[in-house]
Amino acid sequence: MLIHAEIYIVGMATVYAGATKDLTEFWETVLTCRRGFREFPQRRLQLSEYGSESREDRDKIYVSGPG
User: Fold this and answer.
1) Are 17 and 38 in contact (CB under 8 A)?
2) pLDDT tens by residue, 44-66
């Protein structure tokens, strides 16, 4: 037996890199193909602790460089 119910979306919120002000800025970022990511500052993320250039290293993020 199928039950049909109406669903209402009351509101949504999220944060997108490069679009910090509002939804208009988000769409401008998307439509102009701007990059919304940047390198992490060393003080926030020590890649030597988490990253590796080898896919074989366990419990590490595989990092080969930006691109």
Assistant:
1) yes
2) 777 778 778 888 888 887 766 65
Q: Which two tokens stand for residue 22?
A: 């509002």
Query: Could you tell me the residue range of the domain that residue 24 belongs to?
Result: 1-67
In single-letter form, the type of residue at position 29 comes to T
Strands (E), the chain: 51-52, 61-62
Judge whether 20 and 30 are in contact, CB under 8 Å.
Answer: no
Sign of CA dihedral 52, 55, 57, 59: positive
The pTM of this model reads 0.37
Number of domains, the chain: 1
CA–CA separation, 63 and 56 (whole Å): 12
